[in-house]
Amino acid sequence: MIDNFGRKINYVRLSLTDRCNLNCVYCMPKGQSPVFLQKEEILSVDEIYRICLYLSKIGIDTIKLTGGEPLLREDFEDVVKKIKTIDKIKNITLTTNGTRLEKYIDFLYDVGIQNINISLDSLSPQKYREITNFRLDKIVEVIKKIKKYDFFRIKINVVPIDISEEEISDLVDFAQENEIKLRFIEMMPIGYGNQFKFISSDDIISMISKKYGEYKRSEKIHGNGPAVYFSFSKLKTEIGFISAMSHMFCDSCNRIRITCDGKIKPCLNYDYSLDIKKMIQQGVDDDAIVEKIASTIYDKPKSHSFLGEFFENSEQKSMYQIGG
Ligand code: SAM
Ligand code: SF4
Questions:
Q1: Which residue intervals of 133-200 are DSSP H helices?
Q2: Span 132-188, pLDDT tens digits
């Protein structure tokens, strides 16, 4: 559907859980006692199916499964199989920390989930542990395993924290060797994200360029998101940048979010949201729910205002509660 500002909205980030087995310092840092929802507050498989069906009726055709860690859901396979029955949903993709990926490789292959984003902020074992509280070798192992399938399209997402040129070059070489797309995501001041020194995409591009030569913005689009890709003269692969802070892309934003308790969030930066789970539980008529969803999406804010003043409806939750 088209929103108030003429943007075509066809993409949803659907959070399956707020739970996670890692403790990324900018999302769910160790020792901060995250507040998790109760089991009954989380969307059931049937509620997820109904919400996806409603969304498909107003033009959503692509769903990114996220979390928390989406692969922690014991009924993950049931969720995917149910969504797959909706004809108008053309594309289901996944974003994961990779820790439980091995268990699901065959299922993802069989069900045809080809696009998988894996969060991997550093290839230094010590730094990776400092960021996530987990072992790097397990993630690298599963990436290499999944690459053998020659089916999956893997992207590595890096949120840079105090990143060195050496770390960047290790990530670039790893991506090139394994024919994986690499993307740098600017840290957003959400949750604990505002406690870190901001590193812009331009800073990263300059660091990459020192070793890998002149750069040029690519016209190619890889995926459904806001990443802009750059080529470097000494690199075969292009590198992606998601620059929500330094190069705001709200004018072309095509996405909405559904939290794991069934609230629709038209923009990451605003906390007000429509509670679809509640409407389903109250027995509201399907057409009326679809209409409410459509009008909420229509009113999607023009842009985020992370760079401006804090305002009444500023989102205060952490990414694990929203889905990234
Ligand atoms: N657990 C999965 C994962 O890590 O990929 C999915 C959920 S996670 C919240 C989704 C993405 O949000 C990850 O790539 C993570 O690095 C990113 N993220 C979390 N907090 C962020 C922040 N403050 N700014 C930018 N990206 C953030
Ligand atoms: Fe978990 Fe993903 Fe948040 Fe890291 S970024 S704590 S893996 S939800």
A1: 136-147, 165-177
A2: 999 999 999 999 999 999 899 999 999 999 999 999 999 999 999 999 999 999 999
Closest ligand 1 atom, CA of 190?
23
| Banded pLDDT at 35 (limits 50, 70, 90) | confident
Residues with CB under 6 A from ligand 1: 20, 26-27, 66-67, 69, 95-97, 119, 157, 159, 185, 187-188, 190-191, 193, 319-320, 324
9 CA distance to ligand 1 middle (Å): 22
How many whole angstroms separate alpha carbon 54 and alpha carbon 246? 34
Backbone angles phi, psi at 92, to 5 degrees: -115, 130
pLDDT, position 129: 97
Summarize pLDDT for 181-212 with one digit per residue, the tens. Answer: 999 999 998 889 989 999 999 999 999 999 99
Which residues have a Cβ under 8 Å from the Cβ of 32 and sit 6 or more positions away? 192
Per the CB < 8 A criterion, the answer to whether 271 and 253 are in contact is no
Q: Which phi and psi (to 5°) does residue 218 adopt?
A: -90, 150
Q: For tokens 């991997």, what's the residue? A: 120
User: What is the DSSP pairing of strand 11-15 with strand 62-66?
Assistant: parallel
Residue 15 near residue 323 (C-beta atoms within 8 A): yes
How far is the centre of ligand 1, averaged over its atoms, from the C-alpha of 285 (Å)?
A: 35
pLDDT of residue 122: 98
| pTM value > 0.85 | yes
**DSSP H or E segment with residue 217:** strand 215-217
Q: Name the closest ligand to CA 119.
A: 1
Statement: residue 222 has pLDDT above 70: yes
Q: Six-digit token pair at 245?
A: 């802070």
Residue to probe by mutation, ligand 1, list 17, 63, 119, 188, most atoms within 8 Å of CB: 119
Closest residue by Cα to residue 155 from 129, 212, 205, 117: 117
